[in-house]
Amino acid sequence: MIPAAALDVNPAALLAPPAPAVHTLGMKSYAELLSRPFVDGLLSRFLRYAAIETTSDRHIEDIPSTQAQWNLARLLEKELRDLGIADVSLDGHCYLIARLKATRGLEKLPAIGLMAHMDTASDVSGANVRPRVIEGYVGEGIVLGSGCVLDPAENPELSDHVGDSIVVTDGSTLLGADDKAGIAIIMTLASILASDPGIAHGPIDIAFTPDEETGKGMNLFPLQNLRAAACYTVDGGKAGEIEAECFNAYSVRASFKGKAIHIGAARGKLANAVAMAASFVSMLPRSESPESTDGWYGYFCPIEISGGLESASAEIFLRDFSREGMERRIEATRAIARAVEAQFPQGKVELEVSKQYVNMRERLDERPEVLEKLMEAARRAGAEPFVKPIRGGTDGARLTEMGIPTPNVFTGGYNYHSRYEWASVSEMALAVETLIELVGLWAEPGSGKGASKAERKTGRDESLAR
Asked: Could you give the 3-state DSSP secondary structure of residue 375?
């Protein structure tokens, strides 16, 4: 045994229990963030919104694609009016826009916008969502139900949230943090601004949209009703994530025309459209699929396939961060179509290529102050901001293409579109504080050191070069 004197410590300390770890998020502890006076309202809003089914349907061209989205839109309209916001409009396509007046004396400042979407993805059921709050998470696996377990070994971010309050599903549905966490964050900000005239801000537009998950949410957006010179979607992930670029996104609908005949007498006569569709999909490069890529690497993703002997169809999503990469992917699908026709001489393949949205980076680079103010706001709130690409798209990408630069802000949600979806209440609170700082920065033109050009480009050029 080593003598206690040789250890150069107080022997009593060897018997004392270890001091509890102080779990932090950026520069603030979870306990500090959870003690904020607005947290109860923030959480109750999120739980209330999450319980409302708003699943959209990409097969339906109407906007909104589902009537269920109206239920949340009408609730939000009422809640905005109850906050004393008089200028609130809900149009015939379920676009909800509210205008907050500037603090007295700041009416001539440029308006900024805050945006979130009301629909949830159809990948997993969004009906009868029963969110559950786990206070003081201890770091263990969470039994959700329906045979699902949220395992920290498979979800390492959970291990960083010991001591936090987190919201999970019951395993039978998604949670809907994408993007009801964003809606709750924006509504909490609106409540704070409505009740505290001491927070100086310019004009603010709030927009809640339908059908973002279908990629059609901005098709009928009433742009003329938005005053904002710059906007921010609150539709991101973990704390500190600032997303300033996204994929170029196209879809390819491949139609396969076969030749049907009794399969017992098919030799030399049958052109099986099902086999043609299967062959087409099998030729998409597996090394360039969603499950094989990350960062700035794009992909081919078959989304749906259907049909019979005489006709079949497949829908393919193409994603790439560069225009040149997208042109390569489109040409690759054409080459695959020709290869399928060579395999099935009596069949025919037709492709319909459609643009969904484009990378917002170029437009955002033209207005660097929009991103700079967001980065500085996150720092002032106590976050550790970092720029990363969106491996997907947001309404902000479409709005940026329309002329209003719109980067994306974190919400504290994880495992989107999944039964294993969960959200951090602390990170949601940090997002609220980031927005408070953001509206304050826009009320002080030119303030804030902002993000450097190097920060905005971190890692991107190196990844694209590989």
From this structure: helix
